[in-house]
Amino acid sequence: MSNSVSEPRRTAAAVGAPRGAGSKTPKQGKTMLGAEAVVASLEAEGVDTVFGYPGGQAIKLYDALYDSQQINHVLARHEQGAVHMADGYARSTGRPGVAIVTSGPGATNTVTGIATAYMDSVPLVVITGQVPRAVIGTDSFQESDIVGITMPVVKHSFLLQSTDELTRTIREAFHIAVTGRPGPVLIDVPSDLAGAKMVFEYPDEVNLPSYKPTYRGNAKQVRAACKLIDASKRPLLYVGGGVISANASEELAALSSLMQIPVVTTLMGKGGVPASHPLNLGAVGMHGAKYSNLAMTECDLLIACGARFSDRVTGRLSEFAPFAQVIHIDIDPAEIGKVREAQVPIVGDLKGVLAAMVEQLRKDGAAPADSEWLERIGKWHERYPFYHPNVGDATDEIVPEVVLKKLSDKLDPRASIVTTEVGQHQMWAHQFVDREVPRSFLSSGGLGTMGFGFPAAIGAAVAHPRKTVVCIAGDGSFQMNSQEMATASINGANVKVLILDNRCLGMVHQWQKLFYDKRYSQTLLEPVPDFVKLADAYGWQGRRIADPAQVDAALDEMLASEGPYLLDVAISREQNVYPMVAPGAALDNIMGAIDVAVGAVRTDMPAGAQNPPTVSPCAQLDAQFGGRWEFNPEDVGQRMERSAAEAAGLAQKTAPEAGEEA
């Protein structure tokens, strides 16, 4: 490996230099307005695209932007959309996304986008106009304390007080956003400073004594981790979004291959390991594969790489990976030990740490454990596959798993980017859309932001005009920011939107079905709007399908189209995302996993059950898989609030007699 513990990742940002011209810009030393200095600073940082929406207190910034020959501005139709676009740009490129908005409601409309980026460690620089310094705190027109409002969801924030600090502040903002654990930084610019004259001097260096991210992993801890790996019989790599942020995919694959360690990935880690890699088990957690969850439960060593032990991965924490010692590698020391104690904590850049581990293991002559662990996982994989060719055979309705599997097969994984909204469709995409390279799957993981995926797709399409960009959406999520169809149309963003349209808020509807006695409170949506007519109104192409025989041709038409395209795919409200770990349940307590031992149907046989039935006892519940159990026969879908006694009584009252069909 070219990297070692003595050679941590050294990007221009990591050593404190701008990514653009910096002080070598031709504008250095010139007198200009503060607003012009803001734009010149963005140019000095190498920014080529800004997303935003103008307003009264940002008008000077926009006036200065008018003259920029370097920066392309994408006008969103809502400030939240603008920040999500900047986020999609950042996730797909690795460069910081930039958004500019005005004060008051313009600034407050950015909060959801900023929080989304913060939760998923995405580098953003958000510049907000502010009322003049003299009236801050007087409740003047369109004033809001955006620094105070966003303080919990930014990596850092600045309220400019003088033109003397303007260029230094912007230099620091970009440095903070992209170094260490990436995240959003906010700069609030009072409009009187934007109109004040100053001499433009852009610094190349950053001096932040209190901010020194640790890149080099402790050598003693690296050696300790390698000893655990060498001694382990059932090791597992648990990979999160940090592998993508650190550009550490090659090093991760090298460690996995060297020691024959299987890999499970979080939603944020998808694409960090090629789907085709023979040791990649794929999705883990609440809607992960049964074989991945069993591997997590049975492993004796868990190597967490840039992952934060989210509750959607761990399930019931007291029963999570009960036999495992933990190696936790993260550049953010606050994450280590926050949820699960680590026997070997390593703070550092994942790329350098993994490379050092590979080097140390080779030096020690370490060898993989015997093949028993991989053979065991292989048997789970064969018995509990994510997908089965018979899915959809017994129904005349479109099955979402089939649609997304077909879409995956039609996409070039190296020349496409997939974004998702949030809900059932997001989990189906995670399960069935294969990704081979990092930064090709963009999804809101930590915050679960409905309305993220579509504007993020626009940001990705602007950054990668030659790639196919597909947003997988639900009809509920898409309507959160559907006004950005105008942005896509006007800016020529070649985005494709595939709506899995079940006319309900699918994931909440599923929980109501399984755990709340089918009390569908406010999750059923009326059949409005007509998405094809909406597409036409915005100058898009569009089509609606409801017949499984139409799926292939419709996908081909969407992918071959020039310009934005919306494909509205009608699916049943009764479709559920499986497998599923119920909220609060242990990770190996999995319902809805396909089990080829009982006829390739979905079943939630209790873990460890002996002599599984040859036919699903609930064959009439859902014919699309030849039958499935939707919940444990003893769990009749009781509401979470009921007491255990009530639940037990209800189960006894409704339980079928022996030999009777459920």
TrEMBL record:
Give the protein's cofactors: thiamine diphosphate; Mg(2+)
- Cite the cofactor comment: Binds 1 thiamine pyrophosphate per subunit.
UniProt pathway annotation: Amino-acid biosynthesis; L-isoleucine biosynthesis; L-isoleucine from 2-oxobutanoate: step 1/4; Amino-acid biosynthesis; L-valine biosynthesis; L-valine from pyruvate: step 1/4
Gene Ontology terms describing biological process: isoleucine biosynthetic process; L-valine biosynthetic process
Positions of region (Disordered): 1-29, 639-662
Record-annotated Thiamine pyrophosphate enzyme N-terminal TPP-binding domain positions: 33-147
Organism superkingdom = Bacteria
Please write the reaction equations for the catalytic activity of this protein: 2 pyruvate + H(+) = (2S)-2-acetolactate + CO2
Specify the Thiamine pyrophosphate enzyme TPP-binding domain's residue ranges: 422-569
Residue ranges of every copy of the Thiamine pyrophosphate enzyme central domain listed in the record: 222-356
Cellular component, GO, one term: acetolactate synthase complex
Single GO molecular function: acetolactate synthase activity
Q: Which Gene3D superfamilies match?
A: 3.40.50.970, TPP-binding domain
Task: Identify the InterPro entries for this entry.
Answer: Acetolactate_synth_lsu (IPR012846), AHAS_TPP (IPR039368), DHS-like_NAD/FAD-binding_dom (IPR029035), THDP-binding (IPR029061), Thiamin_PyroP_enz_cen_dom (IPR012000), Thiamin_PyroP_enz_TPP-bd_dom (IPR012001), TPP-bd_CS (IPR000399), TPP_enz (IPR045229)
Pfam short name (any one): TPP_enzyme_N
* Catalytic EC class: transferase
Report the EC number(s), separated by commas if there are several: 2.2.1.6
Which of UniProt's keywords are assigned here? Amino-acid biosynthesis, Branched-chain amino acid biosynthesis, FAD, Flavoprotein, Magnesium, Metal-binding, Thiamine pyrophosphate, Transferase
Q: Which SUPFAM superfamilies does the protein's record reference?
A: DHS-like NAD/FAD-binding domain, Thiamin diphosphate-binding fold (THDP-binding)
Q: Provide the family line.
A: Belongs to the TPP enzyme family.
Xref: NCBIfam families: acolac_lg
UniProt-recorded name of the protein:
Acetolactate synthase
Originating organism: Parvibacter caecicola
